[in-house]
Amino acid sequence: MKISTNITYKLYAVLFMIVSMTVVACSDDTDDISTAIASNSIPITFRTGIGAVSTRAFVPTQDTIIVKHEPVWMYVNKVDGEKHVGAWQMVSNGDGSLVVPDGSKKYYPEGNQDVDVYSIHGNFNVPSNNSNMPKEFHHNVSIDQSKELNYVRSDLLWITDSDQEASIDPVYLKYRHMLSKIEICFQPSGDITDDSIMGAKASVGNVFTNAALDTKNSEGETEGDLGIVNFRFIAVSHDATGFNDANYAEIVIPPQTIEARKLFKVALADGSEFYYKPDQSITFEPGKVYRYHMQLKKTVKITPVIVDNWVKDSVNTSYTINSLDGAPSVTDWNSKDVYIKWKYMQADPTVDDWFYDGTHWEYVRSSPSVDEWGKDSTDIKEVNTDPTVDKWQNDSNTISNVDGNPTVDDWYSRHSDIKDITGGPVVDDWKYQTNGIYDIVGKPTVDDWKNKKSGISDVTGKPTVDDWKNQNGGSYYWGAGDIDKK
Length: 486
Known about the structure:
By secondary structure, the chain is mostly beta strands. It has 2 helices and 32 strands. The strands form 9 sheets. It has a 7-stranded mixed β-sheet, with no helix packed on it. Strands 6, 10, 11, 14, 15 and 20 form a 6-stranded mixed β-sheet that branches.
């Protein structure tokens, strides 16, 4: 049978349309164009390193090689900025090489064009597969870095590599440690024995734990609220003569400036708590390692005190952490030529607990939640971890607790000549003002007494202030009967 020319053309047209539709459908279903294999396409592979080679006897964790099984995320763009590979998860082999968990491959752009590579490791929201690189990554350091995995994941690593030429050889990525690192080792001294520090717990307090990384300009910024980071307690023996063979606890924190106040805490199993306060403020810079050698010290001070012609010994025991080197030693966590841009934050006490008047901080609430990490300004010092008011001492010239009991007779004003020697109302009922002390709860105690420049005194303990009037050198009492002048 002979087929007409018109029918033949129509068959060819239909076949062409079917093929065209198939091609278009396949193109629409392929979001990740990096998996397309063009002629002579080269697969993208990587090998990695971090920081600088350590020359120390102590072998730090994840110092120069990403720990095995740790995930990293890759982003690959064409040099014109167009996305080529979105979020692509790879995993460290622990030897500098990276593998893809599902075994899939990505290829250089068509014609094996140059690419820009971005990669990050840290603790942030896991990006969805092939998603665009965000403008910022928000990273959190773990508040429990006593566990190695938490410490490793807290280490924010970042690298950018522009104009990378296509090659069958792996692209070498030299990551940067973006945050600050603390290495610390303790030593017991005096009455603190090796047995007594068994089970000790350590922490660093009043530090920021969050950071943001701007992916456009590779600039970091400290953010969030203050927190406490727990870390492993590691110590040399009581009789050790140095730290040459010591191991160190490792802590990662965002770069920040910390005031001269309580920084490290060690709590022993018997309840003893030791604190370290640097002599001056310190700035933890990005990509730096701060090493501390610390001594746990217990000091007992006995002072004779005369009370009502009786002498008794006042025993004051202090628990401190002393830096054996003064300031910490500082070394580079990355290569010396690495510069990291970072916006710092000042680690001040939380606003809820402290008020800043422009010159100093003042403690403004009696909650014991921060008494362990209170700011040692020139005004208020915490001398006991109990939440009672009488355990707080004001180092200015206002109010001082002289006994330890929360009664009024233990408190006196250094500004006025009024002193309660009978006891009674609690400290919370007293308010200090320029001309004296007033009861602020309405009880018939100090409310009835006002200290003025000329002075008022009740010599019987019975009449109220309303019954007494002080005028120019004389005190007058009026009540039932005639006025008596004294």
